[in-house]
Amino acid sequence: MTTKYEVTYIIKPDIDDEAKKAVVDKYDKVIADNGATMVESKDWGKRRFAYEINKYREGTYHIMTFTAEDAKAVDEFGRLSRIDNQVLRSMTVKLDK
Length: 97
Hints:
Elements: E1 3-11, H1 17-33, E2 37-53, E3 56-68, H2 72-83, E4 87-94
Antiparallel strand pairs: 1-3, 1-4, 2-3
């Protein structure tokens, strides 16, 4: 059964556009390489945080929506984003019931 997922992640605000694009492309590729089908990948722009995260007061939000047969792509994204120092936070939501 195919499940739809939504992943929101926050990229550090002080990296340049080229580096930000590299981060986005890297995670889009991680999703595709692990058997998921990308529905949408869009930039939400810079937003101010309600509280400080790793000494940052704002970050660049990016959201991906994709479908997958299993959670392999979600697990791999989670693993890589936790060790990537360019990503401040991420959240994955399963959209199907």
